[in-house]
Amino acid sequence: MTTMSAPAEVHAAAAARLEGSALGLDAVIAGPGLSRERRDAFGLRLDRFYDDLASALAEIHPDPEVRAPLTARMVELAAAAYAERADELHTLDARRLLTPDWLQQPRMFGYACYTERFADDLRGVAARLDHLEELGVTYLHLMPLLQPREGDNDGGYAVQDYRAVRSDLGTMDDLRDLATTLRGRGISLCMDLVVNHVAREHEWAARARTGDERYRDYFHVLPDRAAVEAYEQTLPEVFPDFAPGSFTWDDDLDAWVWTTFNEFQWDLNWANPAVLLEFTEIILGLANLGVEVLRLDAIAFLWKRLGTDCQNQPEVHAITQALRAVTRMAAPAVAFKAEAIVGPRDLVQYLGTGRHAGRVSDLAYHNSLMVQVWSMLAARNTVLARQALRALPATPATGTWITYVRCHDDIGWAIDDRDAYAVGVTGQGHRAFLSDWYSGEFPGSWADGLVFQANPATGDRRISGTAASLLGLETDPDAALARILLAHAVVAAWGGIPVVWSGDELGQPNDPGWASEPGHEDDNRWAHRPRLDWTRAASRDDPDTVAGRVFGGLRHLAAVRARLPQLHASADTEVLQDTDDGVLAVVRQHASGTFVGLYNVSDQARSFEPHRLHDLGLTAPYDALGGHPLATGSMGLLWLPPYAAWWLVDAPG
Ligand code: GLC
Predict the structure, then answer these.
(1) Which among 304, 351, 487, 634 is least surrounded, fewest beta carbons within 10 Å?
(2) The domain 203-267: what is its CATH number?
(3) Is 297 assigned a catalytic role?
């Protein structure tokens, strides 16, 4: 009689869970190609993550008749992807499993760009890696690069084929090669996965339009205007200007179809198990190319419920958990990033709270912090930011923020009315002020932004513009440079991965010719999506140029950050409440020591009481950014010059 090794027992236990499900698991992973060790490893993962999958699916599909075959098929897909995964990626999986906090480490520093606007195509990106390495980049987000529809495609967010790279950017092989090259240079590749909608020209939509019932069910097809209006009563508009409403009449369908964004972007019906299976395959395929982070685009909108705003529904988190569980079985190195640009109180759930804790996305955009950075700089005041950032629930230990000053999108003023009220202003009034300020309409404003999607019904006006233009680089270069570095210093030490938006590292202004490309004329977000100016980049090492000063400043932030263990994202971030109104004081207590970020968002010197640093645990406060100990000034206070950013830790031994 032979005795089973422990892993084999585990494998047997995992397989037993699926007994009676008609699952061909053994056929998939016990094939001749897979070593005993590989089979056992899969068995362990199946055992570990099966409950995550099953409980998530139970939330979406209470009916066991639907759920059982769906669960079995998802595991089968995971097993097949696992069996096909390259050796090198299995090694990466092992490495990430040994370092589960890899995304939280201070060495992480991100950059986001459009492939073609950065370097023409995927091979071009590989040839430009010096620029990124010099900046200190360890994480690269390439904007949508799968085959979109022709013509206007919302910057690639209207995907026609998830299994092909945009032909002008390269091929799937080029993508794999780039991921490999990046990995070799210590950079993780992040790419977009558009999950809420597909292009009207995608095969599923095309088939639906021919009357194929199977594919009609992939979408939200509504028979008449009454059904549309029932939803629209409670639905906000995302693009009120160029795509009003959330539904589009389609002659081929002879019905209304749900289109949250543009009319050519058809929302998917995630209540249909077939959609979940399609995306399981797509995700596992991208994982096996070597993509390390998947940005789940517009994830807040995945589940629709009559009588609600159809955002942030609980099922969204269950769907993410199911996809995450199968991805962890096949490719645990792969992380999920939630793109949920939602109000502060709905945000943290995307990092996993309650029953979804530790089971959904690893990363989410810190939209609230981004908005508060802009708000503080315009108001020269931190009172609202202190209130808003304090009111956020604690960040789940396994989750990490993407912190950012700018991204490819406009800035929407996600100021919570309750926070505004608590500090004696109105949400609407403050939002109007910010729009006026950043569009340059407010007297004394240094900003040069553009109004995006003005909504007369709500009074909302979002803002487009590069960091440099919004911070006044053309008006007052010295002050603007200080503001640019201050804004990036706040996000780089907040906790999470700071991500720099392409062009901002060189202080590039708005693209004056943004409207001249076909399909861009109605969408002024292209103003802040300039082609990277390589002539400007050539002076990135010259401190006498604007580009050199910005690039040098951001590179310094990345380098100092990487050396400070206190900036590990697992440390709690606390904002001190009773400080000077122009000062933001951020405290992070980590086992390796205390960190205090002091930021003066105003254009005048502001003070801070030195004894408070001692009370917080700093015995010999030292500014790691400036590289010197602190000196008190008049009245025994610390004086922060206008727009100063200090990263305080205990002086090195
Ligand atoms: C996300 C993208 C945005 C796009 C939208 C629809 O919000 O960031 O650029 O327009 O999704 O895909």
Answers:
(1) 634
(2) 3.90.400.10
(3) yes
